[in-house]
Amino acid sequence: MLIDHNLTPVEYKEIIFEKRPCLDFEGKPAKGLFNAWIILNNPKQFNSYTTQMVKEVILAFREASNDRSVVAVVFTAVGDKAFCTGGNTKEYAEYYANNPQEYKQYMRLFNDMVSTILMCDKPVVCRVNGMRIAGGQEIGMACDFTIAQDLARFGQAGPKHGSAPDGGSTDFLPLFVGVERSFYSCTVCDPWSAHEALRYGLITEIVPALKVNGEFITNPMVYTDKWVNKKGDIVYGTPKKGSEKEKAKELMQSGEIDLSLLDKAVESLCTKLMYLMPNCLSKTLNSIRKHKLEYWDKNKESNRDWLALNMMTEAKAGFRAFNEGAKGNKEVDFIKLRQLLADGHEWDDEMIKAISPQYQKK
Predict the structure, then answer these.
(1) Which of these, 12, 294, 344, 346, has the minimum number of CB atoms within 10 Å of its CB?
(2) Gap between the Cα atoms of 33 and 250, Å rounded
(3) 3-state SS record for 65-100
């Protein structure tokens, strides 16, 4: 009898864990071999992860890693709007804000989730079905490969909402896109289109997801038909503006989202991975993962300490503003904040009320 190396039996409530048959090069199931699909299941909140979900992701990756019949792991989410937009801001605002000791324990779980992805004995494919933002970007970059539908967007949100992208982005992103693009993405937080992410080297492959009149078309919201404009500027993947943007919106609204090409591309990669020596594949992955782990292991504990203490100040204000502010008004008054700090104002309830949209008179 084979020994069970899993830590504990688990009943998944906030994720879906499935084993789907591996397909050979002819598209036929390979008997007894599977890909493990770990699927975030919180589409109403853009698949943001709660504390419970983080626990389940950790256990799911351990289960997939230990399963002798599993060839590869596909990490994805329900729906077509978002892969993951990071931590659940409702939980952050209502429980963890002003509770650094509690958030530090939560960040132990988050760190373990990232580490579990990085240490999985099977190759991990991030299937990006929609937005990959903030902590979603971080757990996505912990994966080995990324295949995305081309309407997806990639980026950070930390400094906009009271945090720093120290759950992996400040460690991983420079390895993918270089230091200067990392500075811009991690601070300004402007998202990249899937086409830009591909051009920058962040992801492996993109496929169309929009169907108009029964035919797949590339993302109409960005420039996809040329690399440079007449001035010599690279415009491939950048968002359209003005009248072109309005026409693109109309085209978007006339179509429907179909992720069948995404599934086909993911299955194709998993098939290629099946036709490799398993131990040689694992060793190769682990040798390359060391570049991520070098920075991740060096910084994760001090980052965890800082992120916990930050729940007393900027994170407390930022997450509550995002959670409680009206639609379209979910950020603090940054100018007022800087003015108060310049005057030496301490972080207290008076400061938070002065800068937060939910406290302002309508």
Answers:
(1) 344
(2) 44
(3) HHCCCEEEEEEEECCCCEEECCECHHHHHHHHCCCH
Q: What is the pLDDT of residues 3-42, one digit of tens each?
A: 888 888 889 999 999 999 999 999 999 999 999 999 999 9
Residues 115, 219, single domain; the answer is no
Q: For the whole model, what pTM was predicted?
A: 0.95
Q: Looking at the structure, tell me whether residues 194 and 215 fall in a common domain.
A: no
Nearest to 120 by CA among 157, 159, 162, 71: 71
pLDDT in tens, 307-333: 999 999 999 999 999 999 999 999 999
Local structure of residue 126 (DSSP, 8 states): E
One domain, residues 120 and 241 = no
The token pair that represents 263 in the structure block: 């599934």
Mean pLDDT of 34-55: 97
Q: How confident is the model at residue 232 (pLDDT cuts 50, 70, 90)?
A: low
Residue 334 lies in a domain: yes
Rounded distance between C-alpha atoms, residue 187 and residue 194, angstroms: 19
Q: What is the pLDDT of residues 87-122, one digit of tens each?
A: 999 999 999 999 999 999 999 999 999 999 999 999
pLDDT at 235: 77
DSSP secondary structure letters along 288-344: HHHHHHHHHHHHHHHHHHHHHHGGGTHHHHHHHHHHHSPTT--S--HHHHHHHHHTT
Domain with 239, as residue range(s), is 210-257
Note whether 46 and 133 are same-domain residues: yes
Q: Which residues have C-beta within 8 Å of that of residue 145, sequence separation ≥ 6?
A: 123, 124, 125, 126, 204, 269
CA distances to 60, 185, 209, 215 from 197, in Å: 28, 11, 16, 24
- Whether residue 19 sits in one domain with residue 168: yes
- Pair (218, 159) in one structural domain: no
% of the chain exceeding 70 in pLDDT: 97
Q: Is there a single domain that holds both residue 293 and residue 251?
A: no
In terms of phi and psi (left: phi > 0; alpha: psi -120 to 50; beta: otherwise), the region of 216 is beta
Residue 6 in any domain: the answer is no
CATH code, domain with 58: 3.90.226.10
19 domain residue, yes or no: yes
